[in-house]
Amino acid sequence: MDHNRQEEIALHRWAVIAEAAGDRLTCGERGALARQIAARTHMHPDGSSRRYSRGTVDRWLRAWRAGGLEALRPSSRADTGVVRAHPELFAEASALRLELPGRPAAQIASILYHRHGITVAERTVRGQLRRAGLHRAALAAEPKAYGRYEAARPNERWITDVLVGPWVPYPKREGSVRARLFLIVDDHSRLLVDGRFFAHENARACQDLLRRAITRRGVPDVFYAVSSA
Length: 229
Known about the structure:
Blueprint: H1 3-17, H2 27-39, E1 42-43, E2 49-50, H3 54-71, H4 82-85, H5 87-99, H6 105-116, H7 122-131, H8 136-141, E3 157-168, E4 177-186, E5 192-198, H9 203-217, E6 222-225
Parallel strand pairs: 3-6
Antiparallel strand pairs: 1-2, 3-4, 4-5
Helix pairs in contact: 1-3, 2-3, 5-6, 6-7
């Protein structure tokens, strides 16, 4: 962006916030004016009509007080082109927002950085999510109801899992091992089909428990085991 374009945008930003930038305003008066500014539509230098969030108005006011018109110039973005170069980041950001609709953009940007070592500005995350209709206001306005994941009848689906138990022998000493409690639950009735402690967590232990359960309760249509089981 050239110098003239930057100055044009800085002047536009000043025109937007000017009425709330007076030194004699109280905090309450400034806040009320900022809300009014955010509620209005403003003509951008490129000819488009735009509305700016209260957060954006407050940020421009802080910049004006700190550095005047120069501070209102748009700066070069450190993350320019990051989302285009790594489209998977936006997909992951969308999944993070859908997983927890109240999760703020700053937290999503932080998660992306710590997972991938790539810095994406909070504003970039917020803008991308808003364009995809995943901003928090929209998600809160349209709550989605999800049905329970449950089998329709007994023996349609069994689920197994493994819980880590106490040291045996106890108290812990040389040669003690962690007991593993293998469980099988009927997904429809929540009946504990079978359960047993084993010394080791392996396929043979799970097979032994499944054999006992089938002998007692019959054969399920589906047997679901998590990776640890």
